[in-house]
Each structure stands twice: as structure tokens, then as C-alpha cells.
Amino acid sequence: MDILQRKADILKALGQPTRLKIVELLREGERCVCEMLPILGEEQANVSKHLSLLRQTGIVEFRKVGVSSYYKIKDKVVFEILDKVEKMVQKELLKSAELAKALSNVTQKGR
């Protein structure tokens, strides 16, 4: 197994907005697909495809109860990854806000 390819597959699975929403929904614990559909606002077939990819990459696991499918995060370390990315985004936003403020101050002084 190529470890770099495996890492790329996991990051690619996390790199899609609907799949990220699904993972974030599952942060709260196991959920039935029937609960996720109205929250996600997506068609069932589309959500099923996303869940299938998340399952193939080992991010989620599921169990069936009658006709219902319940999904949960397989390894909570995925949340550590997402939390680190969120910190990166927050730093970038803060840096952009500081840059915009500095630029605004320069522009106002030039008037």
C-alpha cells in the first residue's frame, strides 16, 4: 500500500464541502441518514455517494437497523485534522483583516 496515496485519498475525501458537512454532523455522534438528509439539503442518492466514499476511505463506518443506515466516525482523529485546518483558516482570516485595516488606515491618511 502506498502511504502517500492513502493520505491523498483521505484528504481528497475530506476536501469536498458536502462530505465535510457530513463529517461535522457526525462530530456529535452517530446519525441516521434520514436525519442528515434535511440538514444537508441534498438528494438521498447524492448523500449516499458521499457516505460511500467516506466509508471507502475509512473515515466513517455504518450499521443497518431494519431499513435505516446509521453512520459514525470511525476514528475521532479526523476531528483533530479538521480542527487544525480551522485554525489555519482563522489565522488567514485574521491576517487578511489586519491587512485590510492597515490598508484602510493608509488610504484614510492619504486623503
Describe the structure in brief:
With 111 residues, this protein is an alpha+beta fold. It has helices at residues 3-14, 17-26, 33-40, 44-56, 77-109; strands at 31-32, 60-65, 68-73. It has two domains: 1-74, Arc Repressor Mutant, subunit A, CATH 1.10.10.10; 76-111.
Q: Helical proportion? A: 55-70%
Order of helices and strands: HHEHHEEH
- Main sheet makeup: 3 strands, antiparallel
Biggest sheet, spatial arrangement of strands: 1-3-2
What is the CATH topology descriptor of the largest domain?
A: Arc Repressor Mutant, subunit A
Assign the structural class, choosing from mainly alpha, mainly beta, alpha/beta, alpha+beta, or little secondary structure: alpha+beta
Q: How confident overall, as mean pLDDT? A: 93
CATH superfamily of the largest domain: Winged helix-like DNA-binding domain superfamily/Winged helix DNA-binding domain
Low-confidence segments, ≥5 residues, pLDDT <50? none
Name of the CATH class of the largest domain: Mainly Alpha
Q: What is the CATH architecture annotation of the largest domain?
A: Orthogonal Bundle
Work out the helix count. 5
Question: What is the alpha-carbon Rg in Å?
Answer: 19 Å
